[in-house]
Amino acid sequence: MALDSLAAQTASAFQQTFHREPQWLAAAPGRVNLIGEHTDYNDGFVFPMALERYTVLAAAPNGTDTITLRSEAGEGFVTVNLAQPLRPGPKGWWGNYPLGVIAGFMARGLKPAGFDALIRSTVPLGGGLSSSAALEVATATLLEAVVGTALDPVEKALLCQKAEHEYAGMPCGIMDQFISTLGRPDHLLLLDCRSREFDLVPFTDPAVSVLIINTNVKHELTGSEYPKRRQQCERAAQILGVRSLRDATREQLDAHRAQFEESVFRRARHVIGEITRTTQAAGAIRRGDWPEVGALMYASHASLRDDYEVSCAELDAVVDLAHNLGPAHGVIGCRMTGGGFGGCAVALVQTAAVASLMTQLEAGYTQKTGITPTMFVSRPGAGATLIKQ
């Protein structure tokens, strides 16, 4: 669904819910990461693009000191009393994402007046496509309009990341909020997560498309495997005597192998290799070397499966099916994307083969797993935007 259509639907739903026209419409995209997984919190490189799937907030002042948020996903209302200190809600509660962003604005002395807002999204939930970051960044974009102050884009992304850390309890890296804020149509974003410098890499070849395959197996990372992986990476850096695994080499790692628990060694091996693969993939796309990009994507998946151990049977099934179809059927490369333990795979495919590939992948995956996947094609989309003010 195009953003303008989604915005119109959200505005209409707001009017039906709150019985007046919205004054503001703000949107932010989900993202897919082409390569560079679990590198962002290790000061490494990531290579995402904004999806043409968005979270939209329609809102209008309500003349009170209260913010009311209604999710179209059937998750009920969130009420925020701005006269009271803000604190996180129960673990796993969706309201923690916008609540943390509101708290971030108030900590900067940017207290909004009360408003009502309705949220509608086409970003799949729990699919590893950053529905949480899309909600955070869309909320921040709305709040910029409400308080009349535009934040620096990097500051805005960091505010949203802090919200996810402190209110949602997820120690995520910077990638998701950064690409949702700074995405640009027809470009991938090669982001240095240490310096926060980035290069926009054109993705304009009409013969190549990005296909997202949702396994429809949902994952829940908060309080489980994600923090554990992060701690293992910190432990590996400590053993190697480096600030982060960004500063380590494979030779260093191999030389210190005797000091490592096997699992920590393999986590570090993935991160060090993935950082290299990510910069190599950016160079290959600039050259139009699609076979090289595909090979790097498959290597990334193997590392995530075997060394980082964040894949699952369903993701492996998708990647195996894509690999077996191969270039003869229009597949360039495929890998899991996102935190892992379910969610989505991303494939680079020949545009002319998209329809037949989707049919073959759906049939093969359903036969293997008994689950029907959801698939869609996306070009690199735009970052956060205020549609109406």
Number of strands: 13
* Coarse structural class: alpha+beta
Which value, in Å, is the CA radius of gyration? 21 Å
Structural shape = globular
Succession of helices and strands: HEEEEEHEHHHEEEHHHHHEEHEE
Short description:
With 389 residues, the protein is of the alpha+beta class. 41% of the residues lie in helices and 22% in strands.
Keyword list:
389 residues; alpha+beta; Ribosomal Protein S5, domain 2; Alpha-Beta Plaits; 2 domains; six-stranded mixed sheet; four-stranded antiparallel sheet; 13 strands; 41% helix; globular
Please, could you describe this protein's structure?
The longest helix is centred in the last third of the chain and has 26 residues, at 262-287. This protein is 41% helix and 22% strand. It has helices at residues 3-18, 96-107, 131-147, 153-166, 175-182, 225-240, 250-255, 262-287, 290-306, 313-325, 354-369, and strands spanning 24-33, 45-46, 48-61, 66-71, 77-81, 115-121, 187-192, 198-202, 208-214, 331-337, 344-350, 374-378, 385-388. The radius of gyration is 21 Å and the shape is globular. It folds into 2 domains: 3-202 and 381-388, Ribosomal Protein S5, domain 2 (2-Layer Sandwich); 208-378, 2-Layer Sandwich (Alpha-Beta Plaits). The two termini are 22 Å apart.
